[in-house]
Amino acid sequence: MSFNQAVIEEFRANAGRVGGPFEGAGLILLTTTGARSGREHTTPLGRPRGPGGQGMYVVGSAGGSDRHPDWYRNLLARPLVRVETGTEVYEAVAVPAEGARREELFAHIVREEPGYGEYQRKTRRVIPVVELQRTHEAEGAGSAEDGIAGMLTRVHGWLRAQIVELLRLPAGESAPVGMQLRQHCLAFCQTLEAHHTGEDTGLFPWLAERHPQLAGFFRRLEEEHRDIERTQTRIAGLIRGGGDQAAVREELEALSRELLAHLDREEAELLPVLRALAA
Questions:
Q1: Using one digit for the tens of pLDDT, what is the confidence trace for 65-115?
Q2: CA distance 273 to 271
């Protein structure tokens, strides 16, 4: 068993408490999705305190290495992560701090834990400070409805809440896309892609076997998935190609219109069917 895996197992078995070199240290477990592999990777990380004890942050120190840690490169590609604190588990969007905000946070962290300053002195790389921003909970997203109908309702509630939050993020007319908008956009698209893939390859074929009269409706939903995917692809291309915030905002508004109409149509047709199956 690797050292990290031993720490992970001890952490989970003891509500976040570990011994050895980490005894008494504030730790979390951060699970990212591999940028290339698509597989989950869990890493124990220090949990430095933010200003006023607020916020959840991790530091990509890698012991002062000249190379960013793998988990950092993963979250740049797929920003939606899972955080385990020992007392709770939740999803978050990982947003690296930029410019003056990064300098302010790093200076505060070094005052609290000077070892991070030693790591920075070892490398020319600017050590990233990443805020783990808990994803917004939609009202009713914790619905107690059972079965596939309840699962669909909860996922759709999350998607609706996230698109609203995305459109609330500040965006200038011609400024380059900042990390906040970039990471939240990519995290949203990451979840939406996984949800639609699951429907196309799992839920829809399963339902079509039981309700062949809905085959045409499922084909329409799959076509809408492809239309939404094309909008997502344009957004990702703008973000990774250095497009400006105004262009991204225009595409986000188009995605919002497409997605909300799609979710309403899907629920109107499928929820009665799914509830009847569970009855």
A1: 999 999 999 999 999 999 999 889 999 999 999 999 999 999 999 999 999
A2: 5
